[in-house]
Write a structure and sequence with these properties.
Elements: H1 3-25, H2 28-44, H3 52-77, H4 89-93, H5 97-110, H6 113-124, H7 129-136, H8 140-158, E1 175-180, H9 185-189, H10 193-201, H11 209-216, H12 220-232, E2 236-239, E3 242-245, E4 248-250, H13 252-286, H14 296-313, E5 330-335, E6 344-350, E7 356-362, H15 379-389, H16 398-410, E8 413-416, E9 419-422, E10 426-428, H17 429-464, H18 474-480, H19 482-496, E11 512-516
Parallel strand pairs: 4-5, 10-11
Antiparallel strand pairs: 1-5, 2-3, 6-7, 7-11, 8-9
Helix pairs in contact: 1-2, 1-3, 2-3, 5-8, 6-8, 7-8, 10-12, 11-12, 13-14, 13-17, 13-19, 14-17, 14-19, 15-16, 17-18
C-alpha cells in the first residue's frame, strides 16, 4: 500500500478506533490514550501492510491486543486507585500506649526514602496529595499509591519482631588503608563512623537498606545518602535490592593470625638490614651528595628509608591494581585494628622543574620530624623548597619569605648568613640511582625469598577470612600488607636495639630527602 493511500485509511480509521475505545472504556482520556497507541502501531507497520483487507484486519487485531493489555493492567492497579481519604490519619496513628508509639516510630525509620517522604509530607506536614505530587515531581495517583503502601508496610512492621544487629550496640571502628596512585581521598572519605559500619554490615552478607538499618541500629533517613555515596565510590556495590562491600576488611582475628605466622621473619629482616647499612655506610657517604656529613643516626635513617621504599615494591610487578571510584589505580582496604607497629607514611611530590621530595614519615615517636602533609598539594612550597635545594640565588618575594619562615619553623630549612640551607640530603639523579641500585640489589639477593614467603602466607590466611566475591583482591592486599611485617616491625626492632635513635639532630631531617632533576 502506497503512502498516500495509507494516510487516507489512517485518517478514516482514527474516528472508528476512538468510537471503539469509548464504548469499551466510557472514559474519554482512556479512549484517546488507547487510540494513540493503536495509531502508533499502525504507523510502525505501514511498510508491511499490503492492501485494504490487510490494513483493517491488522488494525482490529492490534486494537483488541492493546485494549486487553490495558484492561489487565487496570485490574492489577485497581487496588491502588484510592481517593484522598484512603489513608486516614486517625486510622494510621490510632495507637495506644508507649509500646505502639515506639513501634510506629521504629517502622517509620525503616521506610525507604520514597515512602517515607510521602508519609511525612501527608501525615506530619499536612500536605495534600496534589501538593505532595508537585513537591516530589510525581503524579497524584502515585502519591496515593505510596501512602496506601506506606500504611500497609507500617502496620505489618509493627506486628513483626525485629532484632537489632550487634553493630547497633557494638559499632566497629575501621581504619582505612590505601596503596597506589595519589591523592589518598579514601582516608578522609571513610572517617565517617556511619560509613564504616555500613561497609562492615555488608561485608559477609548482602543486605537490603532495611537490613542495614537493623544491623547498624541507624535509621534509614541517616543511611540513604551515605549508601549512595559509598556506592558512587565503588566501596559498596548493589545487586538488585541488596548491597555488599567491595573492599577487603582485615579483622583483628585475621591480623593476629597473620602476625603469628610471620613473626619468625621479623628479626631476620632487621638483622640483614643492619648488616647492609653497616657495610655500605662508607660507600653511601662517598657518593658525595649534599649533606653527606650529617650525623651517623640521620644517615642510617636515610638509608633505611630508601631500603623500605624498595621493599614496598618488591614482588608487586604481576599484581593488577584496580581503579577506585575517584579514578586512581589503588588498593583500598580497612583494618579493624591498627597495629601499634604501623608507624610510617610514605609519599613523593614533584616540583615544576622535575625535582622530587620523598617523605618516609616516622609516626612512632611523639617527637615527630617531617610530615608529607607539610608539602603535599602545595605546589608553591614544593617549588620554593626545591629552589633552595638547588642553591639558586633568587630574590624571594615577601610572600615567598613567609613560606620559608614556616619551613624554618618546621625544621626543613635553616638560615645561614644571608642565604638559606635545607636540612635534608640532596641527591642528583645519578647519585640517587647509585644508592637505589645498591638497595635494590640487596633486597633482591637477601630479602626477596623471605618476603615472598610472607606474601604467600598472608594471602593464604587472608583468603580464608575474605568473602568469595572479594577473592580477586586478596593477593594485592597481601602484597601491600608486607609494609607492616617487612618495614614497620623491623624498624621497631632496630629502634629497640638503639641502632636507630629517635633523638633527632635539631638541624637534620631523618627520613625526608630530595632528588634534583639533573
Amino acid at each position: 500500500m502506497d503512502e498516500s493511500k495509507f494516510n487516507e485509511k489512517l485518517t478514516d480509521a482514527a474516528k472508528t478506533i476512538f468510537s471503539f475505545y469509548m464504548a469499551k472504556t466510557s472514559n474519554r482520556e482512556d479512549a484517546e490514550d488507547l487510540s494513540q497507541d493503536i495509531l502508533y502501531e499502525l504507523i510502525k507497520s505501514s511498510g508491511s501492510i499490503r492492501d485494504d483487507g490487510a490494513f483493517y484486519g491488522f488494525m482490529w487485531a492490534v486494537a483488541n491486543n492493546v485494549y486487553n493489555h490495558w484492561y489487565k493492567r487496570k485490574l492489577k492497579n485497581a487496588t491502588y486507585e484510592l481517593d484522598e481519604n484512603m489513608a486516614s490519619e486517625d486510622d494510621l496513628f490510632d495507637v495506644e500506649g508507649n509500646t505502639d508509639i515506639y513501634l510506629l516510630r521504629r517502622e517509620l525509620t525503616l521506610l525507604s526514602e520514597k515512602y517515607r517522604k510521602a508519609t511525612i509530607l501527608y501525615y506530619i506536614d499536612g500536605r495534600s496529595c496534589r501538593e505532595i505530587a508537585q513537591s516530589l515531581n510525581i503524579t497524584e495517583s502515585m502519591v496515593k499509591y505510596l501512602l496506601f503502601k506506606s500504611r500497609k508496610i507500617l502496620k505489618e512492621g509493627m506486628n513483626m519482631e525485629r532484632n537489632l544487629g550487634e553493630l547497633s550496640y557494638n559499632p566497629k571502628t575501621l581504619h582505612p588503608m590505601y596503596h597506589g596512585q595519589g591523592p589518598n581521598r579514601f582516608y578522609d572519605f571513610m572517617q565517617s563512623k556511619i560509613r564504616q559500619n555500613i561497609v562492615g554490615a555488608c561485608y559477609n552478607d548482602s543486605l537490603t537498606l532495611q537490613q542495614i538499618s537493623l544491623e547498624t541500629g541507624i535509621p534509614l533517613p541517616y543511611i540513604d545518602d551515605e549508601v549512595k555515596a559509598l556506592e558512587d565510590k565503588k566501596i559498596i556495590i548493589k545487586e538488585g535490592k541488596h548491597y555488599k562491600s567491595n573492599i577487603v576488611i582485615i579483622s583483628t582475628e585475621c591480623a593476629n593470625e597473620i602476625e603469628r605466622a610471620v613473626i619468625k621473619y621479623h628479626n631476620i629482616i632487621a638483622d640483614k638490614m643492619k648488616a647492609f647499612i653497616e657495610e655500605k655506610m662508607l660507600d653511601y657517604k662517598a657518593i658525595g651528595f649534599i649533606n653527606n656529613d650529617f650525623s651517623e643516626n640521620t644517615l642510617r635513617w636515610q638509608m633505611v628509608a630508601i631500603l623500605f621504599r624498595k621493599i614496598c615494591g618488591i614482588n608487586n610487578e604481576a599484581i593488577s591494581t584496580p581503579k577506585t571510584g575517584w579514578g586512581e589505580n589503588a588498593f583500598l582496604w580497612c583494618l579493624e585494628k591498627l597495629p601499634q607497629s604501623y608507624m610510617f607514611n610514605y609519599c613523593g611530590v614533584n616540583s615544576k622543574q622535575g625535582d622530587s621530595i620523598y617523605f618516609f614519615d616516622y609516626l612512632g615517636s611523639e617527637n615527630r620530624k617531617g610530615d608529607h602533609h607539610d608539602f603535599y598539594g602545595n605546589e608553591r612550597y614544593i617549588n620554593i623548597f626545591c629552589d633552595i635545594c638547588r642553591d639558586e640565588k633568587k630574590n624571594f618575594s615577601e610572600y615567598d619569605l613567609e613560606a620559608i619562615a614556616e619551613m624554618i619553623k618546621k625544621g626543613y630549612v635553616v638560615k645561614a648568613d644571608d642565604s638559606f640551607k635545607t636540612t635534608v640530603p640532596i641527591y642528583t639523579t645519578e647519585q640517587y640511582n647509585q644508592i637505589t641500585d645498591s638497595a635494590e640489589q640487596f633486597v633482591c639477593d637477601s630479602l626477596s625469598t623471605i618476603i615472598k614467603e610472607m606474601d604467600d602466607t598472608t594471602a593464604r590466611i587472608l583468603s580464608s577470612h575474605t568473602p568469595k566475591h572479594l577473592q580477586d583482591q586478596v593477593n594485592g592486599i597481601a602484597a601491600t600488607d608486607k609494609f607492616v611485617n617487612a618495614v614497620c616491625i623491623p624498624a621497631t626492632i632496630l629502634v629497640d636495639r638503639r641502632f636507630l635513635s629517635t633523638s633527632w639532630h635539631p638541624f637534620e631531617m631523618p627520613t625526608t630527602y630530595v632528588v634534583l632533576n639533573m
